[in-house]
């Protein structure tokens, strides 16, 4: 069993380092097609979406986890949703031939995409933190309002 898991991890690692960066850079390059504004807009949207969604899945998973299997399932789901950003990070920081070829492809066919993904990631983190603050502050406000209502009922009972 352990051998099968190890083989699966090795095959996934090879696929992720040898084929995925090159393939993904070509998909992005074909979409952007050398247009700077398309690279900026799509890169920013890419960064926002593939940052906010995994963070929401992680937050939901850790909030509603009942078993460790369910928590691991949410963690895997978040990793799958974050995969496009992780692939771009592998292209930017990778040292292999596929990463270098992906970087060259994005330089020529996808100008502005890599930098705007970083901007989108930062915007996505800020949006997620703002959403988290809104949800948590609403929960606190409801709790305070419930306490005020109970206090008001007690005062009304004492007056009657």
End-to-end separation in angstroms reads 73 Å
Number of beta strands? 0
Gross morphology is elongated
Number of helices: 6
Strand content: under 5%
Low-pLDDT stretches are none
Question: Biggest sheet: strands, sense, closure?
Answer: none
Write down the domain tally. 1
Reading the helices and strands in chain order gives HHHHHH
Structural class of the helix and strand makeup? mainly alpha
Arithmetic mean pLDDT = 89
List the quaternary state of the chains: single chain
Radius of gyration (Å): 23 Å
User: Helix coverage percent of residues?
Assistant: over 70%
What is shown here, in short?
With 160 residues, the chain is mainly α. 90% of the residues lie in helices and 0% in strands. The protein is built from six helices and no strands.
Structural topology:
Layout: H1 2-18, H2 20-32, H3 36-63, H4 68-93, H5 97-109, H6 113-159
What are the main properties of this structure?
0% strand; single chain; mainly alpha; elongated
What does this protein structure show overall?
There is one protein chain. With 160 residues, this protein is an all-alpha fold. It contains six helices and no strands. It has helices at 2-18, 20-32, 36-63, 68-93, 97-109, 113-159. α2 (20-32) packs across α4. The protein is elongated and about 80 Å long. The protein starts with a helix and ends with a helix.
């Amino acid at each position: 069993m352990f051998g099968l898991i190890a083989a699966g991890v090795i095959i996934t690692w090879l696929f992720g380092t040898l084929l995925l960066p090159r393939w993904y850079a070509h998909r992005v390059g074909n979409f952007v097609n050398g247009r700077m504004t398309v690279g900026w807009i799509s890169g920013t949207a890419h960064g926002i979406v593939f940052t906010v969604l995994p963070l929401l899945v992680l937050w939901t998973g850790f909030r509603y986890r009942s078993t460790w299997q369910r928590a691991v399932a949410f963690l895997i789901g978040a990793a799958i949703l974050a995969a496009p950003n992780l692939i771009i990070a592998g292209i930017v920081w990778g040292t292999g031939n596929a990463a270098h070829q992906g970087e060259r492809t994005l330089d020529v066919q996808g100008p502005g995409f890599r930098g705007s993904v970083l901007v989108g990631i930062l915007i996505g983190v800020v949006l997620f933190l703002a959403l988290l603050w809104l949800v948590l502050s609403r929960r606190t406000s409801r709790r305070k309002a419930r306490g005020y209502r109970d206090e008001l009922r007690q005062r009304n009972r004492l007056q009657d």
